[in-house]
Write a structure and sequence with these properties.
The protein is an alpha/beta fold and 585 residues long. 42% of the residues lie in helices and 14% in strands.
Length: 585
């Protein structure tokens, strides 16, 4: 029968998959539920096996039996409210019985669910595996049968096979094998593929941090390895979450350490880059599309947007994040960073025939993007498109750590009220910033936030800052991550939140920057909704950038405020705008 079906389908755009046996669990054969339009079966099939076949079929799909033996199927299926049955008999013999199933529900695929979740969740919160099932298995007393559920993970033929990947190259690199073992132990799996993402095995930010701490201690025990700070290891794993990449990074750090020790006389070394270039694939024959990090220094907040850009299949996409946060915080931004990133991109472009670039910068990333565009243009690189996404000017230097911390907290997707530091009105908070600017001019000194007052709303904000100041930094950040856990279920290590805030503070101070006039064209995407924490008006923002742009400046309003314009459905609409290069409408 398999051979006959294959011949009948020849020439049609269909995928035909043969199932070895109905009796065996179909997931063990590499098949997934709700993933087939048609299931064709023949021979004697009992009720249990019939239910398995139905589970494989998409809503609205067909179950077709050839030469069936059980006449009761016809009457049973005709009784189903959502059933549709066709019978083909000839000369008293049963030939085909077709049953259209699950007409009471909407068809949805695991891939569609994954795409939807990627628009609303960071990568470390995405499920490692998704199945669309008709029902969850239950025990006799009506509870979820977790033991049976645990057996539902598909065979490797349906997912990614790790048997070869797990051992390939490991013998030649003991460090890589050791790292894979540490990660397999942390994730509760027998082994892990050397080039497979830790996220695929269920890693999250908490597990990442735990492994980073364990590896830091293990590396410190071996004098052959260079000391690597916790946050450097953690950032490396967040950017490149594979055993292969982690081993390569540690080897590189070891080599750099040995080289510096072997130099007998003072010798100026070439400054190594602090940029991490993260390739996201795409068409190498098209333009190079570059997305710059924002105030937190990572690509995590850009994942929904990047997924949309990848789907456009226009050019290749690369993200630029920071490598070493300690080093980043010691740099003279913005121009030093722009020099570094421009040099990295020129090296990438030299590897192949030169092609135009599209530069995309949001928030702080926009300030970096315009300076990189200037440097690439000076080297003859054609700038196809420079897109700046909602970049209000920061005209005041802020040296008050508590104020910067309060501005950072929304980046964790929580409020200070949820962290039990008091409820304040966003409008009052914005008035506080305006009051501090009016009082202190272009530099807000340390401790200023605790002096706020004047009316009921301002007094509440001042009281909140005084309450914050009563706790030390570790206590405050512990409260932040606990609030994050309660509101979203995400378990972020305190050290990670503190590190992100340190990078944010450096980025925020660096954002007080006015670029020199830019001779090229700019596409400026302005968030339609105001954001209280950024007191600059849309008119002030546009006037700032119009003074800088000597070429043509095209302004387009986008949905959302400064934060929400980058997530959910707003990210989808944003990506559609980015797909249209400047000047080609």
């Amino acid at each position: 029968m398999t051979e006959q079906v294959s011949q009948a389908l020849e020439g049609y755009n269909v995928a035909y998959i043969s199932m070895d046996t109905v009796e065996e669990e179909y997931r063990a054969q590499g098949l997934a539920p709700n993933s087939f339009d048609v299931v064709l079966a023949a021979g004697a099939i009992d009720s249990s096996d019939m239910n398995k076949l139905k589970e494989l079929i998409y809503p609205g799909g067909w179950l077709i039996l050839a030469k069936w033996t059980e006449d009761s199927w016809i009457s049973e299926w005709q009784k189903e409210e959502d059933g549709l049955v066709f019978v083909l008999q000839k000369d008293g013999e049963n030939h085909l019985l077709a049953h259209r199933v699950k007409l009471d529900r909407v068809r949805v695929s695991a891939a569609e669910l994954e795409k939807f979740l990627s628009l609303h969740l960071p990568a470390y919160m995405l499920p490692a595996h998704l199945q669309v099932v008709d029902a969850l298995p239950l025990t006799g007393n009506g509870k979820i049968d977790r033991s049976k559920l645990a057996k539902w993970r598909p065979a490797s033929s349906f997912g990614q096979s790790v048997s070869m990947d797990a051992t390939e190259g490991a013998e030649s690199d003991p460090l890589e094998a050791q790292l894979a073992h540490v990660w397999a132990e942390a994730l509760g799996v027998s082994r892990i593929g050397r080039t497979q993402s830790f996220y695929e095995y269920g890693a999250d930010s908490l597990i990442m941090a735990q492994v980073a701490g364990k590896l830091r201690d293990k590396l410190a025990e071996n004098p052959a390895h260079a000391a690597i700070p916790f946050d450097v290891l953690l950032r490396q794993m967040l950017n490149f979450p594979t055993a292969d990449a982690l081993a390569g990074f540690i080897h590189m750090r070891n080599q750099e350490s040995q080289q510096s020790e072997e130099v007998a006389l003072p010798k100026k070394r070439n400054k190594s880059s602090n940029a991490v270039l993260i390739p996201y694939g795409g068409d190498e024959s098209g333009p190079l599309r570059v997305v710059f990090h924002a105030v937190l220094g990572t690509m995590d907040g850009f994942r929904p947007l990047i997924e949309q850009l990848k789907a456009q299949q226009t050019g290749s996409i690369v993200g630029i994040a920071i490598d070493d946060s300690e080093r980043y915080c010691a740099l003279e931004l913005i121009e030093t960073v722009a020099d570094d990133y421009a040099e990295c991109l020129i090296d990438v472009l030299r590897e192949r025939e030169q092609r135009p670039v599209q530069l995309i910068g949001y928030s702080l990333g926009g300030l970096i993007a315009i300076e990189v565009a200037r440097r690439l243009g000076e080297q003859g690189v054609p700038i196809l498109d420079l897109v700046l996404i909602d970049i209000p000017p920061i005209l005041t230097e802020v040296n008050d750590d508590l104020l910067i911390e309060a501005l950072f907290v929304p980046n964790l997707n929580i409020t200070l009220e949820q962290a039990a530091f008091g409820k304040v009105n966003e409008h009052d908070f914005a008035r506080v910033i305006l009051q501090l600017v009016e009082k202190h001019g272009d530099c807000i000194p340390q401790g200023s936030a605790c002096t706020i007052g004047g009316d009921e709303g301002l007094d509440q904000v001042g009281e909140m800052f005084r309450k914050l100041s009563a706790f030390d930094r570790r206590e405050r950040f512990t409260a932040y991550v606990q609030a994050l856990g309660k509101t979203s279920g995400e378990q972020m290590p305190v050290e990670m939140a503190e590190g992100l805030c340190k990078v944010f503070g450096q980025s925020f101070k660096a954002a007080r920057y006015t670029p020199l006039p830019y001779m090229g064209d700019i596409r400026f995407l302005l968030a339609r909704e105001p954001f209280q924490f950024l007191p600059s008006t849309s008119e002030e923002t546009l006037a700032f950038w119009q003074d800088i742009c000597i070429g043509e400046m095209e302004v387009t309003e986008i949905a959302g405020n400064h934060y929400s314009c980058m997530v959910g459905e707003n990210a989808v609409k944003l990506a559609e705008l980015l797909a249209v290069p400047h000047g080609t409408k």
